[in-house]
Amino acid sequence: MIQKKFIKGLRWVLAPFSILYALVLSIRNVLFDNKILKQTSFEAPVIAVGNLSVGGTGKTPQIEYLIRLLQDNYTIAVLSRGYKRKSKGFVLAVKETTVEEIGDEPFQFHNKFDKISVAVDSDRTNGIKQLLENDPSINLILLDDAYQHRKVSAKFYILLTSYDQRYTQDFVLPLGNLRESRSGAKRANAIVVTKCPASLTLKERDNIVKEIKPLNHQRVFFSGIVYDDTIHSKTISLPLYKLNDYEIVLVTGIAKPKPLVEYLITNEIKFKHLGFPDHHDFKSSDISKINKIFGEIENPKKLILTTEKDSTRLSDSISGVFSLGIKTSIIETEKFNSFVKSGI
To answer: Alpha helix (H) ranges present in 163-283?
Structure first.
């Protein structure tokens, strides 16, 4: 409690820096809006998915939702910057590509979807050019975590904001968690309020729409998280209902593990939680710690469980680690699908 109060107080002390940062970003956006700074457009439509806040809004399952929605009608490429990868420049994922080369989220896309191309490049303009040169049949680009990447002019922008930490109630860094001021939301076509509780009522949705105040070209949608009913290792699958007899070591390296923790509690699954920072690079000391805690469990029915994203970094280091997948569920599915398709 004392630590939280200290951090909150420190943020208010840093408020002048927040104002300065917001001003610099606003000037940058004005320069792009007035075409003083160059933006590059492409013949292939580009969908940019991102957020105003720092992490934890559900970009990965949203990208996967779009892949499932559009892959039958488009030749899709997903381009990410490849956060925390150990490579430089443009990298196109191939069969031999490792998670270290492209990062955990792109590696997850590459593993799960056979019909798409996946690449990473911090220079998104160059990345798109390289993708199209490599495969001219690509006719749709999904830009992951690219809402602030103004050098590319996207055809359609999807802005994500968490239900429990909406950008309308937040401030620019370091006072708050926003990468840019709230006014940046005007660039969005679709604004998706993510990680909504199942109990969300129509009245609550209406109140949030009033809070967001969408412009004429914008639509507000609501989504929730749906967890898979089965967990998977490299060789075994187990239905979730069978885990009630198990004791589990839950390992997470994601921005907001709270929904997963609450989900396991709701399903009366016993676990010990080891939480690490988002995109954590698991060292040998981390693996030793995980194995030590796992070894101390006396119940013969025990396993190590993690998220899909974390499993890309853990499955080669820990034998038999299981992962639990998630999907985005849009409340007004058909309206969202039609809005996206009509926008590209």
So the answer is: 202-212, 258-266
Tokens 């239905």 sit on residue: 239
Q: What is the pTM of this model?
A: 0.93
d(CA 236, CA 220): 40
Tokens of 25: 């970003």
> How does pLDDT run across 162-203, given as a tens digit for each residue?
999 999 999 999 889 999 999 999 999 999 999 999 999 999
Query: Shortest CA distance to 255 belongs to which of 145, 159, 333, 109?
Result: 145
Nearest-angstrom CA–CA distance, 325 and 322: 10
Sequence-distant (≥ 6) Cβ neighbours of residue 254 within 8 angstroms:
56, 260, 278, 307, 309, 310
Instruction: Please enumerate, as own/partner, the contacts of 102-108 that have beta carbons within 8 Å and a separation of 24 or more.
Output: 103/279, 104/279, 104/309, 104/310, 104/312, 104/313, 105/59, 105/60, 105/80, 105/144, 105/309, 106/78, 106/80, 106/82, 106/144, 107/312, 108/60, 108/308, 108/309, 108/312
Beta strands 91-92; 117-120: pairing state:
antiparallel
Query: How is residue 40 written in tokens?
Result: 């590059």
Residue 184: left (phi > 0), alpha (psi -120 to 50), or beta?
alpha
